[in-house]
Design goal:
It is a single chain. With about 475 residues, the chain is of the alpha/beta class. The chain folds into three domains: about 10-90, Winged helix-like DNA-binding domain superfamily/Winged helix DNA-binding domain (Arc Repressor Mutant, subunit A, Orthogonal Bundle), CATH 1.10.10; about 100-110 and about 360-460, Aspartate Aminotransferase, domain 1; about 115-355, Type I PLP-dependent aspartate aminotransferase-like (Major domain) (Aspartate Aminotransferase, domain 2), CATH 3.40.640.10. The protein contains 18 helices and 16 strands. It has helices at about 10-15, 25-40, 55-60, 65-75, 115-130, 135, 145-160, 175-185, 200-210, 225-235, 255-270, 290-295, 320-335, 340-350, 355-380, 400-405, 440-450, 455-460, and strands at about 80, 90, 100, 170, 190-195, 210-215, 220, 220-225, 240, 270-275, 300-305, 315-320, 385-390, 410, 415, 425-430. Strand 5 (about 190-195), helix 9 and strand 6 form a beta-alpha-beta unit. Helix 8 (about 175-185) crosses helix 13 (about 320-335) and helix 10 (about 225-235) packs parallel to helix 11 (about 255-270). It starts with 9 loop residues before the first helix and ends with a helix. About 40% of the residues are buried.
Length: about 475
């Protein structure tokens, strides 16, 4: 239902005549973007009354639904507020001493124009039509059911080719999957080898479970095969952890030749490989995963948290065979009886109906646009994926930069958060997906760029 407030003057309404200029994205989003830009420029001021929806629809030659959806989006962004019969007004800025902008959390960006509320409502309605509510609210077998395995196999097909559904395990997130892999295929006291810079969740899980991470030296192509083989022989290694495509945090991608060398070492040493591959779909011309090269040697992990939404808490593991599948499910049940049936069913529905691919296409497009924004702001080249790795100038150390950024209201991840043993980098990871929109990201990166250019060592030498 819409509530039109008293008629505005012709001057007041005509000020909105440019709100529907040609551009990209749905018209309702362009209307919300216009309001956001006008507020930022001071054209629209807090407390100013917004035209009636019907009047605006007539002025802009759009239907009333478009204006209503545009106002809903603007309200979601905190740009406008309804005051009952008085009408709708430009909202006052939220009172915050310092707005913290998160450039440290690696999540997929929300695409412009994607109505997640509508997708969730429609998706859950379809899930409830296809499934009994009582069934969704009870216990399920760990690792997912056959429909979930089939959906997982379909999601993994671009990376791995055809996958037998019986090889797929559904996990409540990648962290749970990693813990289950450690439990299933190692013993307390075992060594797990990995590159010196890696996803912090792995060493955390290993430490909690009584295992140790041994860092392996790298070169320009990734983990060195000779160093890997030496470590495998010395420590009787059972698990090798790799994140070979758009690696977190460095964004490096291991070339196909090196992948083949790593597989051969693993085969000679009798070690399994965990291929944690959440970003493969973002990469341009990515090499085939190690699991496609040697499926009998590799446990392949892909999570929807980095491609669709962390809220789904769904990750898919492709295991080499039925025996490995059974061991993994047994290990998973020791700490996570099952993935949440409701969100798990939604993920399955979205994949089977093609909705997941549509969402990801929008996420990927938004990620590329944010990479371009970052490249322009930081004077670097645009990459792929949802984060970038920025090597710091000599006068900044990673920890100091992170603290200084925090005082400016920015959260970044220093290289020290990812390092295991070997001192390898003085850099920060900048994540591009957690900010509310492109404008906020652009402003945050400009602030970060100014901070990076501030040579405090030179300032300290000035004598007054």
């Amino acid at each position: 239902m819409t509530h039109d407030h008293p008629a505005e003057s012709a001057v007041e309404v005509n000020a909105w005549a440019t709100a529907m200029q040609p551009g990209n994205g749905p018209r309702y989003v362009r209307l919300a973007d216009f309001i956001e830009a006008a507020v930022a420029q001071g054209t629209l001021r807090p407390g100013e009354r917004v035209p009636a929806q019907r009047s605006l629809a007539t002025l802009l030659s759009v239907d009333l639904t478009t204006v209503t959806r545009g106002f809903n989006e603007a309200r979601r962004r905190g740009l406008i507020e309804a005051r009952g019969p008085l009408g709708t007004f430009i909202a006052a800025p939220r009172a915050e001493l310092l707005q913290r902008v998160d450039l440290s959390m690696n999540i997929p960006p929300a695409p412009v124009g994607l109505d997640m509320n509508a997708l969730l409502r429609e998706g859950m309605a379809r899930v409830l039509v296809r499934s009994d509510a009582d069934l969704l609210m009870t216990y399920h077998m760990g690792g997912g059911g056959r429909a979930d395995w089939q959906a997982g196999a379909k999601w993994l097909q671009p990376m791995l080719g055809p996958v037998a559904p019986e090889r797929v395990v559904v996990c409540p997130g990648a962290q749970a999957a990693l813990a289950a892999l450690i439990l299933a295929f190692t013993q307390p006291g075992d060594v797990i080898v990995a590159e010196p810079l890696l996803y912090p969740g792995l060493p955390h899980a290993a430490a909690q479970l009584g295992r140790r991470i041994e860092p392996i030296a790298v070169d320009a192509y990734g983990m060195r095969p000779d160093a890997l083989e030496a470590a495998c022989r010395e420590h009787a290694v059972r698990l090798i952890y790799l994140n070979p495509t758009l690696q977190n945090p460095t964004t490096a991608t291991m070339p196909e030749g090196r992948r083949l060398e790593i597989v051969r070492v693993a085969q000679r040493c009798g070690a399994r490989i965990i291929e944690d591959d959440p970003y493969w779909r973002f990469a341009l011309d990515a090499p085939p995963p190690l699991a496609r090269i040697a499926p009998a040697q590799v446990c392949y992990l892909a999570t929807l948290s980095k491609t669709l939404s962390p809220g789904l808490r769904t990750a898919y593991l492709a295991l080499p065979d039925e025996a490995a599948h059974a061991r993994l499910v047994s290990a998973l049940r020791t700490f996570s009886l099952m993935a949440a049936p409701l969100t798990n069913s939604l993920a399955t529905h979205w994949i089977e109906e093609g909705v997941a691919e549509q969402i990801f296409a929008d996420v990927k497009a938004e990620a590329r646009e944010r990479q371009r924004i970052a490249a322009h702001a930081l004077g670097s080249s645009a990459g792929a994926g949802i984060h970038l790795w920025y090597t710091l100038p000599r006068y900044w150390q990673a920890r100091e930069l992170a603290v200084a950024a925090s005082t400016e209201g920015l959260a970044v991840a220093p290289s020290t958060a990812f390092q295991q043993g070997l001192e390898t980098a003085n850099a920060i990871r900048i994540s591009l997906g957690a900010t509310g929109g492109r404008e906020q990201l652009q402003a945050a990166l400009r602030k970060l760029s100014a901070l990076l250019a501030n040579d405090r060592s030179a300032q300290a030498q000035v004598i007054v």
